[in-house]
Amino acid sequence: MIDLLSYIPQKRKNTSSGWVSFNAPCCVHKGESQDKRLRGGIKQQEDDWSYHCFNCGFTASFTAGRSVSYKARKLLEWLGVDSTDVERLNLESLKRKSLLDLTAERNTIKQKQIDFNETEIPEGVERIDPNNKLHFHYVDYLKARGIVFGYPFLVDKRRGPRDRIVVPYTYKNRIVGHTSRYLDSRTPKFINSQQPGYVFGYDLQKSDWTSAIVVEGIFDALSISGLACMHETISKDQAQLLKQLQRRIIVVPDQDRAGLSIIDAAVEHKFEVSIPNWPEDVKDVNDAVVRFGVAETLQQIHQSAERSKIKIEMSRKKLLRNFK
Prior knowledge:
Helix content is 30%, strand content 20%. By secondary structure, the chain is an alpha+beta fold. It has two domains: 4-106, no CATH class; 125-322, no CATH class.
C-alpha cells in the first residue's frame, strides 16, 4: 500500500485528531488560484485515507479492499505518485477482498425501505424574493445567520401577527413536511410538521461527497448543506436513512447539555463525532459559520472528527464539565 503522507509537501500542520493540513494540489487543476493557506487536509488510518480541500471543495478517499476511484487517482497523480504504483495499489487492494467481502457487497443489508408521504405546503405562502421590499426583513434574518438563498424558503403573502419563514422538507425532490421559524420573541420559535424517521437535508447531499455532517438544528444544517435530525437524538429509522448515503457520517452536537444525548446516539449507531474546540459563545454549527465562515467551520468539523469511543467519551466529559 502507499504511504500517502510521504508524498505531501514538508510544509504541513498536524492536528491532534490526526489530520495533516498542507497546500492543496488540486486547486490549480480545478480552475482556482493556487492554495497558499494549507487548505488541503489528509487523514490516514492504516491504509485508508480521506482528503478534503477547503479551498476548491475537491474530495477523495481510499479504502483498502476497494478499487482506486477516479478522484483518488487524480489526487495521487497531482501528488506525484507514479502511475505504476497506483496500479499496484489497486491490485493489492482488490486482493484483500475475501469471498465474504464480495458476498457482503452483493447482498447489501436489506432493511425496510424508508419513504415518506408527500404533503402540501401551508396555504398563503410564497417563495422568498430578495428583491421584494416586503421580504427584506426575512432576507436580513437569513443573511445574519449565514444562510444563502439557494434553498426554496417561503414566507406568508400577507404579514400576520407572527412573521415566519417556512422551510419545506424534501425527500427525493418531493415535499414531505415543513417547519415554520417565527421571528418574534415569543415561543414556540419553531412549529414542525415532520414524519417519523425523516432527516432534513437529504436532498442537499451530492453523490460525489465522501462525508455527511449531521446536526440537530435545521439552520445549522442549512448553513453547511448538512443534515438535521431535529431532535436531541437520532432514531433507528433516521440512522438507517443516514447509512443509506454510504459515506462517512459525522455527528456534530450542540455544545450544550442537550447535545450529550445525540453523542450517545451517534456512538450507538457507530457514527463519527466531532466536537471542535470553539469559544464558549459558539454553541452550535450555525454560530460557528457566523463567526468563522463556512469553509473554516467545515475544516474544523472534519479535523475534530473522532471514531474512537474512548476519545469521544473524553470530549463528552469535557463538555459535561463546562455545564457544571
